[in-house]
Amino acid sequence: MLLNLGNEKRIHDIPIVRIRPCRTQCRKDYSAQEMKELAQSIKVNGIIQPLTVRKVSREEYELISGERRLRAAVMCGSRKVPCIIINCTDSQADQLSLIEDLQRSGLSFFEEAKGIDRLMKTYNLSKLDISRRLGKKQSFITGRLSVLELSDEEMEIIQRHKLTERHAKALLRVKEAATRKLILSEIIAQGMNVTQSERYIDSVLSAGSKKKLKTQKTRLVIKDIKILENTINKAVDTIRSTGIDAVKGRTETEDFIEYTVRIPKGRNNSETPSFKTA
Fold first, then answer.
1. Do the beta carbons of residue 176 and residue 212 sit within 8 Å?
2. Which of 87, 92, 193, 217 could form a disulfide with 4 if both were Cys (CB 3.0 to 4.6 A apart)?
3. Is the entire prediction scored with pTM above 0.85?
């Protein structure tokens, strides 16, 4: 993306009131202590690196990069800030602002992921395009994007309790949202580090697999019992169709299920015994 600086290569002191915020700012949270320190530095030394802006009207400029410096300048009472003015379209300004923001340290991994996602969806950039522009490996881009599979509520909880990206990625192994929420609550309540969290998640997934296997086996046994019961029912119906008054019985205990068929002795079936199956 080539930008036209035109003749505006000089640094301009622009009134802060004439600069409007960047529309695509990734960063949402600013450390109060860091901002205080930056404001004190600006008060003593001034702004060493100029802000980047573009002119959007006769009297107004839009910030491209330098959000922290602008905020700190306001905090220390500055009325003007040094700026470099560039000529670019709305789309170029948005992309440049996003990329410049993503290249700086200090963003949370969720903020980075959302910024990368915005570049892909808004400007139709591929992971390869973004990796080249950010100077990062494509695997890094893919890894960052994966955390967006968590819900907004889960991301907010993770950020609020200052859990790490590895915590977030470990949670992604749990597919059921309700189970994931319970695990997250337990991790926070017990103050688990990453290793402890990963082991805990392993145990939950292992227990779930065993329970699932046991359930499957139980279903197979029940299915087999139903087949047997249907066979007995058909046998009794066949006996009854000959005029014999056969009686079927079923008894169930903790250890077994017992089926009985009683056939009354009569003139034509005195030699026919009753039989039992269990």
1. no
2. 87
3. no
- Distance set, CA 45 to CA 12, 40, 48, 76, 214 (Å): 18, 9, 7, 12, 70
- One-letter identity of residue 147: V
For residues 42 and 1, the model is more confident at: 42
Tell me how far apart the alpha carbons of residues 233 and 249 are, in angstroms, rounded to a whole number.
10
**E strands within the chain?**
11-15, 19-20, 51-55, 61-65, 80-86, 247-252, 257-262, 275-277
Phi, psi of 238, rounded to the nearest 5 degrees? -65, -45
| Cα torsion angle, 45, 15, 70, 61, sign | negative
What is the 8-class DSSP label of residue 257?
E
* pLDDT confidence tier of residue 6, bands split at 50, 70 and 90: very low
Q: Where do we find the tokens 């056969």?
A: 246
Percent helix, strand, coil in the chain, to 5, is 55, 15, 30
- Can you give the pLDDT at residue 212? 54
CA dist list (Å): 160 to 104, 127, 128, 154, 275: 22, 29, 32, 10, 70
pLDDT in tens, 69-112: 999 999 999 999 999 999 988 888 888 888 887 877 678 899 99
Contact 69, 42 (CB under 8 A): yes
